[in-house]
């Protein structure tokens, strides 16, 4: 379940691919054509000749968005990570890391949605005339909303996409407004894997914590601005964060008890006082409608009795 | 610069210099880290843990944990791994009479990689079984190499063994790549495991490695005179009454045991096993009676310092240890090579 963790690092590669291949890259501030259900429609440089009926989605986040738009039955194949909603898990699976032009084209799709290009996939599909959208990992909520609207435009579901975005915006605003005000911000450490890879406030997930008024200890450890620094254990112990969020519960079996067994970690206040919050790796690494679930899990944890 | 007189015996001066270097490295490793702590408090904290000593270091609970649970075991483990790999490398270079021999020559790395990958794929990277799987894989690879290449006798037996190691390593690497490919979602865990784990080690890893490292170092040190005899050639050694195949078997077994245990707890640390013995050889002479013990001390000091760099250069984030060992080790070795200019050989 490491895909979304790898994806942000290859963002630059994706951009390079776009320029070379001319794949559409809808993102924040989507460059969609003016509204209208009529096809053909151009979404970020990719012309979609008719309303898609056969979609290949090799991106778990966008599979979730398509189902949320109510067009899950249009999907003819997904990747191995697309397991939500449950019926998405039953679709034909492609290997997102080794996606070949031929294996995608074999499904005769009229729209391909990617969040990672393993090679010359974009260029190959463009050469075959198959409309392909490559969504880079988002950095902000606005990026996510832009991708949802772009996917709506590409499928002739602009109204549905608008409603989906409005619903998420409303939920986010409600959760953020419910956070009790604090004198000093709560600090947190967000763990991506047991070798202490973390993420900073500059990332999409870090931005969600920022909305809740929390301070990320990893921000001080990322002078290069990668967004995903590997922290030293010394640094985490010295920072002694108020909360620890684990996004490596499913991949790597981490929990409050495995943290307590790590050398020196039992001395951390968050470990000793029960403020280690396990997250669902998948929800925490995707940017679909379930980002509300992630935000709610975090908001619930910091609002709980004894929460800071 | 004229080459120093080759040493046939350990001079107290050389041992003294190496010991001072090692102690300095250990001290620096303990005092410097990602988090700035006062040296006096760090030393007081360590002294406080000694039997019959009670000192108030004034450190907070977390700072005390940094010193005792993070820094000290990491420094000790780096020293043990460095000593084991350098001694194994020196012994391999002697027993195979091959300057390019390193501790991974007979397939240890590929075997450990396959073992760790299978362990991570089936049980997850958090499992305590993974180091054991890596250890078993490493031993299995070398055993297979020996079974394939050890049958031939005569003057070329060592070469045959090295070539068998090449074949076994290629086979195990292919198997590891295949298993990894079938489970692409574990790539990150497999690589972060293989590339070194000193960043997350504690006393339990020290306890795992210490017995194997101890036995391995002891056997290799005891065989250092026989390595000198082997250096004149296998047939010549036989005429001197030394069984080349027996010496080779014992040295390979001991070096493999130590290397496999080191790899199992720390991942693949490159460069130490090949550079440290050569640096020692170029500086003090070509007798294994001198090279093996000084490589033990030098390897320990080198890896402790390299790990210090890994921890502090980009603090508070970490630099991979292998990057430091090669980035610092390669230029250092080039300088030694140019200034000594002694040919390789006995």
Describe it for me?
The complex is a heterodimer of chains A (308) and B (346). Chain A has helices at 3-6, 11-21, 60-68, 101-105, 121-127, 141-154, 158-177, 204-211, 233-239, 249-252, 256-261, 269-272, 281-284, 291-303, and strands at residues 41-43, 46-48, 55-58, 75-79, 93-94, 111-114, 132-134, 187-191, 215-216, 243-246, 276-278. With 308 residues, chain A is α/β, with parallel strands linked by helices. Chain A folds into two domains: 3-172, Nitrogenase molybdenum iron protein domain (Rossmann fold); 180-303, 3-Layer(aba) Sandwich (Rossmann fold). In chain A, helix 2 (11-21) runs parallel beside helix 5 (121-127), helix 6 (141-154) runs antiparallel to helix 7 and helix 7 (158-177) runs parallel beside helix 14 (291-303). The radius of gyration of chain A is 20 Å and the shape is elongated. The model of chain A is unreliable at 1-22 and 28-36 (pLDDT under 50). Chain B has one domain: ABC transporter involved in vitamin B12 uptake, BtuC (Orthogonal Bundle). In chain B, 73% of the residues lie in helices and 0% in strands. Chain B has helices spanning 12-31, 39-49, 61-95, 108-123, 129-149, 157-182, 187-194, 203-222, 224-230, 234-239, 244-266, 272-284, 288-312, 321-340. Chain B is globular, with a radius of gyration of 21 Å. The model of chain B has no long low-confidence stretch (mean pLDDT 86). The chains are: A alpha/beta (308), B mainly alpha (346). The A-B interface holds A 1-3, 5-6, 80-81, 95, 97-98, 193-196, 220-223, 229-235, 237-238, 240, 251-254, 258, 262-268 and B 33-35, 61-66, 68-71, 73, 124-127, 181, 184-189, 192, 197, 199-204, 311, 314-318.
